[in-house]
Specification:
Elements (H helix, E strand, L loop, with lengths): L8 H20 L8 H20 L3 H19 L6 H22 L7 H14 L27 E9 L10 H9 L2 E8 L17 E8 L3 H7 L7 E7 L13 H11 L3 H4 L7 H6 L14 H24 L6 H28 L1 E3 L1 H4 L2 H12 L3 E6 L4 E3 H22 L3 H6 L6 E10 L2 E8 L6 H10 L11 H6 L22 H9 L4 E7 L3 E9 L4 E9 L2 E6 L3 E6 L5 E4 L3 E6 L2 E7 H4 L13 E7 L2 E7 L1 E9 L3 H4 L6 E6 L5 E5 L1 H7 L9 H11 L1
Parallel strand pairs: 6-8, 13-22, 17-19
Antiparallel strand pairs: 1-3, 1-4, 2-3, 5-7, 8-9, 9-11, 10-11, 12-13, 12-20, 14-18, 15-16, 16-17, 18-19, 21-22
Length: about 700
C-alpha cells in the first residue's frame, strides 16, 4: 500500500509560489555591497522551504536546482561571500526558472530543464571559486562575527529522531531528511526497529522506525534544527552536543550511501510511489495551460463575520416559522412584514459577507511590477522609479486574475513609448529618473486603476498620420486630441518605428481594451505632450453581482449595466434625423447619438415603436454613445449573474442572465456586442453619425 501524496500537491504549489514571490520582492530590496542580514535570511528561508517540500514530494529537479542557489545564499548570509549585482540577477532569473518548473509540474506537463541547467552551471562556476570544492557546500565558512573553524575543531552532535506513526501521512519522507543532514558534515546513522510490530499488525502507511544520528559538523545546532523544521510537530527530536566522538577515524558517510543503507534496512513504499511528475490524481485538479490559483486565503475576521450573519439569518428564520404557526391575526401580519424586512436585510448582509471573502487587496497584482519595471528599464537603458498607491484597495479575486495581463502591457507601454531616456529627459529639463505610478481606489460601485507616467505624452500628430496611413480615418476628419488618442485602441494600430520584444507589434492596445471590456469594464487615456499620460481602467468590484437598470421591451424585461448608462430621457422628435440605412440619430448637446430599437434587434412584437412614446437610455461603450429605445424603466437592483455560455450557449448582444424575484429569467445586455449586432461598424469615431447627417442636409 502506497500513500497518495498528490492530495498535498496543491498546497505545496501554492506555498512554493508564495515563497517565490517573497524571494523576488526581497531580492529587489537588496543592494550589492550593503546586505541586510534579515533580508538575506528571508530569501534563504523561502528557498529552503521550496527545496524541502520539493524533495519530500519527489520533485528532484526542483530540489537539486534550489540546493545550489541555497548554497550561495548560505555563504552570503554567513559573510563568507560578498553579494554582487551578478548574484542578484542570477537569483532573480532562478526565481523565474522555478516558477516555470513548478507551473509545469502543477499542470502535469513535461519540464524543460534547459534554463535550469544553464543557471545551475553558472552558480556552480561561482561556487567553484571557493577554497573548498563546489561539490562540498558544507565546507568551512567564515563571517565577521564567527571566525572560520579550523579542521579538527568540529563539534559532534547526537540527534535522536522519533517520528510519530502518522509521519508518512503528512507527506514527509525520512530518507530526504537524512540526506540533507548528511550534507552538514560526517554522519553516522543507526536505526531502531524495536517499535516495529509483527507482520499482522504492520500498517504500510505508518512509520514505526526511529533513528539515532551522530553528526560531526561546524554548522552549529541551528543548521540541524533547520533540517527538521518541517517535521518538528510530528516527531520527537533531541539534539545533544557530545564532543568529538568520531575522533581521528571519522565514519565515511556520503549522503548517497546513507540513502541506500536506510532503504535497505527499512523499505518505505512512499519513496517508490513518488516520481518527478504529479500522480494521476493531480491531473484532475490541474487545468492544462492554466496556473490560476484554485483556492483563496481568507482572514479570520471575514469568516467570523460570515458566521455571525448566518446566525442572524437562523434567528430570523425561527421567528418567521413561529409566526406561521397557529391562527393568522392582524398583529401577526404586521410582525410577519417586519420579519420579512429583517430577512431581506440579513440576506443582503450575508451576500456582502460572502462577496468580501472573494475580495483581495490589489497588492497581489501590484507586487509583480517592481521586478517588471527593473528588468524592462535595464533593457531599455532608462532610469525609472515605480510608485504604488492604494495597494490595500480590494477587488474580486477573479477580476484581479484577469486584469493582471492588460496592466502588464500598459506598464510596458509606458516604459517603452512613454518615458524618455535619461539624456532626453535632461534636455527637456526633467529629472533623469522617470516615474511610473500605479494607483487604485474605489469610486461608487467600481474600482479605478490608473497607470500614470511623467514621460513625453502621446504624439497626436504622429498618431493621426499613422491612422490615415492605415486607413482608419481620412485626411478630412476633424478629430479632437482625445478622439485621436483613442485611435491607439484600434486593431493593428502602432506608432512604433521598430518592432521590439517589449511593445510595438501593433497587436496590443486593442487586445487590452477587449480584455477589459470582457470584465464589464472600460479604459480611457488622457495625455499632455511633454507632461505624461494616464490610462484609467474602470472595473466592477466583482463579476458575480451586477448593479443593473431593469427595462421593459414588449413583454420582456432586460437589464442594462448601470456602469454603461449615461442618462435616460424622453425623445424630442425635432432633434431626430434619419440617415442612410434607415438609422435614426438624436442630436444631443452637439453629439449625434444613433438610436437602436431593442425590439427590432431581438425580434419582439408588441413593443412601442413611436420614438416620442418610448424612453431612450443613452449608454456608452468604446467611447461610442448609442441610445436604446425601450418601453419603460423599472427598478434598479443588484442581480446575480449567470453565465449563458455555461448553461445554454453564447448569444450575441447578451453578456449573461439572471433570475428575477418572480422567477422569470432576464437577459443582461452587452453594450459592445449590441453595437456590433446592430451593424454599427464605425463605433468609436464620429464618422458614423455626423457625415450622413451633413450629406442629407446638403
Amino acid at each position: 500500500m502506497s500513500i497518495d501524496l498528490s492530495q498535498f500537491f496543491e498546497v505545496f504549489f501554492e506555498e512554493s509560489l508564495e515563497g517565490l514571490d517573497v524571494m523576488e520582492s526581497e531580492l529587489l530590496n537588496l543592494t550589492p555591497g550593503d546586505v541586510d542580514n534579515e533580508t538575506i535570511n528571508t530569501i534563504f528561508r523561502a528557498a529552503h522551504s521550496i527545496k524541502g517540500g520539493s524533495g519530500t514530494f519527489g520533485f528532484t529537479h526542483v530540489s537539486d536546482f534550489t540546493h545550489v542557489l541555497e548554497t550561495l545564499l548560505d555563504q552570503i548570509r554567513e559573510g563568507s561571500r560578498e553579494l554582487t549585482a551578478e548574484h542578484v540577477n542570477l537569483l532573480l532569473q532562478s526565481v523565474d526558472c522555478l516558477r516555470e518548473m513548478l507551473g509545469d509540474l502543477q499542470n502535469n506537463q513535461e519540464t524543460d530543464l534547459t534554463t535550469a541547467i544553464q543557471l545551475k552551471e553558472k552558480f556552480e562556476a561561482i561556487l567553484a571559486g571557493e577554497s573548498q570544492p563546489a561539490s562540498t557546500p558544507a565546507a568551512t565558512k567564515s563571517s565577521n562575527d564567527n571566525p572560520p573553524v579550523e579542521h579538527g575543531a568540529l563539534d559532534t552532535y547526537e540527534v535522536i529522531f522519533k517520528p510519530q506513526h502518522h509521519l508518512f501521512k503528512t507527506g514527509n519522507e525520512p530518507i530526504y531528511l537524512i540526506e540533507e543532514l548528511a550534507e552538514l558534515g560526517q554522519l553516522d546513522v543507526s536505526v531502531n526497529l524495536d517499535d516495529v510490530p509483527d507482520i499482522h499488525n504492520l500498517a504500510a502507511d505508518e512509520c514505526f522506525l526511529n533513528w539515532c544520528f551522530y553528526l560531526e559538523t561546524d554548522k552549529g545546532e541551528e543548521a540541524i534544527k533547520e533540517v527538521f523544521e518541517w517535521v518538528e510537530d510530528d516527531a520527537e527530536i533531541t539534539i545533544t552536543l557530545c564532543g568529538g566522538l568520531f575522533g581521528d577515524d571519522p565514519v565515511e558517510s556520503e549522503s548517497e550511501d546513507v540513502s541506500e543503507q536506510v532503504t535497505e534496512e527499512a523499505p518505505t513504499p512512499t519513496a517508490e510511489s513518488i516520481s518527478d511528475k504529479p500522480a494521476p490524481a493531480a491531473k484532475a485538479s490541474a487545468k492544462s495551460g492554466s496556473t490560476e490559483s484554485t483556492s483563496i486565503r481568507v482572514s479570520i475576521d471575514k469568516v467570523d463575520s460570515l458566521i455571525n450573519m448566518v446566525g442572524e439569518l437562523v434567528i430570523t428564520q425561527a421567528m418567521l416559522t413561529q409566526l406561521g404557526e397557529g391562527e393568522i391575526t392582524e398583529n401577526k401580519l404586521m410582525a410577519l412584514q417586519e420579519g420579512l424586512a429583517q430577512l431581506a436585510h440579513n440576506t443582503r448582509d450575508l451576500q456582502e459577507s460572502v462577496m468580501r471573502i472573494r475580495m483581495l487587496p490589489i497588492s497581489f497584482v501590484f507586487s509583480r511590477f517592481p521586478r517588471l519595471v527593473r528588468d524592462t528599464s535595464q533593457k531599455l537603458g532608462k532610469e525609472v522609479e515605480l510608485k504604488l498607491l492604494g495597494e490595500q484597495t480590494e477587488l474580486d479575486k477573479t477580476v484581479m486574475e484577469k486584469i493582471s495581463d492588460p496592466m502588464v502591457h500598459l506598464v510596458r507601454n509606458s516604459l517603452d513609448h512613454g518615458l524618455e531616456t535619461p539624456e532626453q529627459r535632461e534636455e527637456a529639463g526633467k529629472p533623469r529618473v522617470g516615474t511610473v505610478t500605479l494607483n487604485a481606489f474605489h469610486q461608487g460601485g467600481n474600482i479605478v486603476i490608473e497607470i500614470m507616467d511623467d514621460g513625453a505624452g502621446l504624439n497626436t500628430q504622429k498618431i493621426k498620420q499613422k491612422a490615415i496611413q492605415n486607413g482608419l480615418i481620412s485626411d478630412s476628419d476633424d478629430l479632437s486630441d482625445d478622439e485621436i488618442n483613442e485611435l491607439i485602441f484600434m486593431p493593428g494600430f502602432s506608432t512604433a518605428d521598430e518592432v521590439s520584444d517589449i511593445s510595438g507589434r501593433g497587436v496590443g492596445m486593442d487586445v487590452v481594451r477587449r480584455n477589459i471590456q470582457s470584465l464589464n469594464g472600460s479604459i480611457e487615456v488622457t495625455s499632455e505632450q511633454g507632461i505624461g499620460s494616464t490610462f484609467t481602467i474602470r472595473l466592477p468590484l466583482t463579476l458575480a453581482i451586477l448593479d443593473g437598470q431593469l427595462v421593459t421591451v414588449a413583454q420582456h424585461t432586460y437589464i442594462i449595466p448601470l456602469i454603461s448608462i449615461v442618462e435616460s430621457l424622453q425623445i424630442d422628435l425635432k432633434m431626430v434625423n434619419c440617415v442612410g440605412g434607415g438609422l435614426n440619430v438624436l442630436r444631443l448637446r452637439d453629439e449625434y447619438i444613433p438610436i437602436l430599437r431593442l425590439h427590432k434587434i431581438f425580434n419582439h412584437s408588441g413593443a412601442i415603436e413611436d420614438l416620442d412614446k418610448g424612453l431612450l437610455v443613452i449608454v456608452e461603450s468604446d467611447n461610442q454613445k448609442v441610445g436604446l429605445l425601450v418601453d419603460d424603466l423599472l427598478a434598479q437592483q443588484q442581480v446575480v449573474i449567470k453565465s449563458l455560455e455555461a448553461n445554454y450557449q453564447k448569444v450575441e448582444g447578451v453578456s449573461g442572465a439572471t433570475i428575477l424575484g418572480d422567477g422569470r429569467v432576464s437577459l443582461i445586455i452587452d453594450i459592445t456586442g449590441l453595437i456590433k449586432l446592430a451593424g454599427l461598424k464605425k463605433a468609436g469615431t464620429s464618422e458614423l453619425a455626423i457625415e450622413p447627417i451633413e450629406s442629407e442636409e446638403a
